[in-house]
Amino acid sequence: MTRLENDTFIRALLRQPVDYTPVWMMRQAGRYLPEYNQTRARAGDFLALCKNPALATEVTLQPLDRFPLDAAILFSDILTIPDAMGLGLYFSTGEGPRFERPLREEREILSLIVPDPDTHLRYVMDAVTEIRKALNNRVPLIGFSGSPFTLACYMVEGASSSDYRQIKTMLYTRPDLLHHILDVTAQAVITYLNAQIEAGAQTVMIFDSWGGALSHAAYQEFSLRYMNQILEGLKREHNGERIPNILFTKGGGLWLESIMASGCDAIGLDWTIDIGEARRRTQDKVALQGNLDPAVLFSSPEAIAAEVGKILASYGHGHGHVFNLGHGISQFTPPENAKALVEAVHTQSVRYHQVG
Amino acid sequence: MTRLENDTFIRALLRQPVDYTPVWMMRQAGRYLPEYNQTRARAGDFLALCKNPALATEVTLQPLDRFPLDAAILFSDILTIPDAMGLGLYFSTGEGPRFERPLREEREILSLIVPDPDTHLRYVMDAVTEIRKALNNRVPLIGFSGSPFTLACYMVEGASSSDYRQIKTMLYTRPDLLHHILDVTAQAVITYLNAQIEAGAQTVMIFDSWGGALSHAAYQEFSLRYMNQILEGLKREHNGERIPNILFTKGGGLWLESIMASGCDAIGLDWTIDIGEARRRTQDKVALQGNLDPAVLFSSPEAIAAEVGKILASYGHGHGHVFNLGHGISQFTPPENAKALVEAVHTQSVRYHQVG
User: What is the reported pTM?
Assistant: First the structure.
């Protein structure tokens, strides 16, 4: 059994008392950091970086060496699972991820197979192991996966999409096929996240980046349902330690009550919802993670401190809050503004955790 | 005083009894119609089409000749106001609208002027007059404008944006400058919409396409506040007839209560909110317009009828509902599916309006 030097993040997710509000930033190891860009250049490209455990470890730790963040997150891509399923992930310059073989044909859909995490996704587990070693228990390590619906969007569209035409056409004309994709993908996510936990991930987060593009009814049936399936299959403990989980549906503010009903430990919030209102609606039954607009980091340390103050005040006194951005940090963020964010959260949050 | 042959749409917006739920489709005069593409080709390009009242009239009426829609909407662009302010609107192929001179410099911002609708926007008023003549009171005509925040997004970014970096940087570093842009733009929208009403628009709609990109607090301060200002200056009657208004913030489902507090007649809803839930939250104090996912129109008449049925059932018995899509109809929509939508609404909605 290992003891974390700083377990504030884990305690906040479990709604236990903490001395201050922990903070990390989605995509904290990323292009806004010059040292990241250097490592990435050495790797060759983004995908090569993801698939190289030593370099993935290096970039995972870079933001921690700059800022006193309360958690590290595995450096990887959300599309590792469909890549391991054989769809042929690649990144075309300036256009984001693409698949060589998008899923369209019934025959291909019905022959989808859950990839074995120990072979095709071995590089992810190796990265988790190596990062844990390098972290040496400074802070906890977050593992993650895309949600089944978000993965299916990329798998069916073949790339990111502005109108989700292919997958929504399938959803409304052949829901049986989409359910099949989602079911196999949910099984794959369970296997994948449990392997990450066994390799050393101390929290797991599910990124449902695109569930917010669905209607309220379709969200329940095609996104949340499969995140529920994952939670049922997910390890909640490992080596006697609780492994908290976080569900994050971008644009999911209207659906908090049903997300909470999944039994998750924490809900990630984007910046469109008032976090105090979210706390009232979820009645302190889950932890909340969020929810600064990443665009605030384009401003100044003073403006950042003011916006951080509003979120802390809106959440109010008591535990169960992990500070984060409402979406990934932008590549155009000045690193000193990320530093100002972390400092503002740590400094200003202390008074909300004092007893009496 | 003229009498509309079909005033179902106006009555529904005013929450008066109707025999069935009226329906129209955002962007109903558009690229999914082959006859629209022909007229547009004759005009030369999209902007030339907007600026030619005779051709704008032609395309406005095209969908009404195909489908028994309950309202017509002025064919125009939301960016006419910034164009009239001198920013130099143009459309680059495949990239959407752009401005030659985006607003960045304080000096330029402080010299913004409310354009005179009778000169620089004369072509819009001429189109309204000509469309009213051509409609000959078949159905009411909707006039519209972009919201101040949405217009400001384009004006400051210079084009559509995925991260709103320029305008949000201004919002968090120089809110005074953004407030100035929004105030002048709100005045321009008031003048513009009132001129449309005098020219014959029988309802006005404000499209806040990008307000949903803001945080809850910034939405109140930078988007809704200026829509409130517009409502205060907007004519509510003309020639003894009520002129209802509709506010539509895409992604605004979390903020219905504050939108309703503006005193608007109706709120437009995208598809992420359950319309029955929206009705409970707004307590029948405003009409609701929406809210089918336009992607449903990629499916089949049967699937469309089923999804229409779910929305009508969720809204339930009683008046105050205008059926619409939750966003503009896609260019990839088969016209026969748009027809199926209109038929399904008209047929299935009758029973929700029967008394006793």
Answer: 0.96
